[in-house]
Amino acid sequence: MDNTMQKVYEQKETKFMRNYGELITEAHDAHDSTLHGTKNPWTIYDTCAIGKYLETWEEMLPVFEDDPTIRSSLGDILNVGLGLVALQYATLPITAFASVQPLDDEAGTIYYRRLMATMTRGAYTADNLIMGATPGDTVDDAYYSEEQLLTYTVLSGDVSSTTTTKTLTLMTPVRPRDVRISVTHGASTYNGIDDGQGNVYGQNIQGTINYVTGALALVITATAAADVINVIYDQNLAEAETLPGFKWDLSTKVVRANYFLIQSQFSTFAEYTIKRRFGRILADDVAADAVAQINGAVLTSGIKKLKAASLTNDLPTINWDATPLSGESIIEHRMTFTDVFEQVMTAIGNQTGRGAISFIIAGSKIRTILRSLGFKPEAKNIPGPYLAGYHEGIPVFFASSSLIADNEALFGYRGTMWFESALVYSPYLPITTVRGQVGLNLFKSGVASAHAAAIDTVVSDFVQRVTVTGM
């Protein structure tokens, strides 16, 4: 992150900690203890995201309170407001695999960052994309390395009889005694080197090299058009006038908040019975169930988008055969499933430059394999997908066959910076609960819960699909 952006986030962090420090600290503690452990540590981006979320909620609350038609029916969650907003952010499982960028309004802009090359070098051209949110982002070592390769195909105009005369220009300054030349002529290869004094010698090769200007003048005998000249050399970057680098370019995507709504009904008599028999307030239980349903819906929406991204990105599906080899037990063979982790990290790393696994979303058969590797899931009686535990520090989510096939899993990467994620979760309206009368029947009450957020993919190559056969 560049210094300007770092300072902006540091200023935001100071502001939000001043206004909501206690709540942010509580959310931080809940985050570490319930969801992410040490795999996805709390960062300055979490502080700024939850701070903005709390600020938006505080701006909304007077709108509710100033309206006498709904003020009297505010539910408990609305009344305690900010504390539950903070807790929801900290414990909503989608934050384990999505970048959180709160919205100021129903429609808004989310951001992701791109790196642009500042010079033409290696596989990059000046102002070309080095890293961003589109498929195909890779790291070219030649862009940063002193060792460079120049390839030239001999043209007919370069050849007089069977002698090629050509001057090539290398990037400067050139390190003496580090120029190596090879010429491919049919089935033959000629090799040459520099002597450190500006001279080039080799089989059928002679010439001069100016280490300051980079001019390499070659005279090659026994050659013809279409021969290939390869020059491998080291540029002395420590003495170069300019160094390879990159500049940041922010890209944007417009998203719109989607509303998640649910309403539950119960009679006054049922509420009275529950309170008398069990000493509980039925509306509280109904509200908790409604919130759980909405959290499940948010998580489901996110997983659907991740799966769609895994089917359309540039990462081919990785398949692992569960059939044991001859003389091998099932348990022994399942131990080789750890190779899949390496394949996933290699695939994501080759495509994006970041080789790590931050989360797993698993179907039932993948769950069985992970158990064989020592994973001990926690069963939870909640609707929709849920965080079941950690495998070697990686959060593992379970999803039903309606979302993830039994033999399927999604492995993904979520970085500590806000642009490093396959998915962006942009909350607008925190989970809100309102109680009121239902219809004309005065004995019927209802609890309605709502949440508004945009959920969208930006870097599809951060998620890898894995399937299993033979089970």
Helical coverage, percent range? 25-40%
Uncertain parts: 63-81, 133-137
Terminal-residue CA separation: 45 Å
Shape: elongated
The domain tally reads: 2
Largest sheet: 9 strands, antiparallel
Produce the secondary structure layout.
Layout lengths: L2 H34 L7 H22 L2 H4 L4 H5 L1 H10 L6 E3 L6 E11 L11 E3 L9 H4 L2 E7 L5 E2 L2 E7 L10 E6 L2 E7 L4 E4 L2 E5 L5 E7 L6 E7 L11 E11 L1 E10 H11 L3 H31 L5 E4 L8 H5 L3 H15 L6 E4 L1 H9 L13 E6 L2 E5 L9 E5 L10 E15 L6 E14 L5 E7 L2
Parallel strand pairs: 1-20, 15-22, 16-18
Antiparallel strand pairs: 2-3, 2-13, 4-12, 5-6, 6-11, 7-8, 7-12, 8-9, 9-10, 10-11, 14-21, 16-19, 17-18, 19-22, 20-21
Write structural notes for this entry.
There is one protein chain. It is built from 11 helices and 22 strands. It is of the alpha+beta class and 471 residues long. It folds into 2 domains: 3-106 and 257-469, no CATH class; 147-235, Immunoglobulin-like. It has a 9-stranded antiparallel β-sheet, with no helix packed on it. Strands 15-22-19-16-18-17 form a 6-stranded mixed β-sheet, sandwiched between helices. A hairpin with a 2-residue loop joins strand 7 and strand 8 (188-194). The longest helix is centred in the first third of the chain and has 34 residues, at 3-36. 34% of the residues are buried. Mean pLDDT is 79; it is low at 63-81 and 133-137.
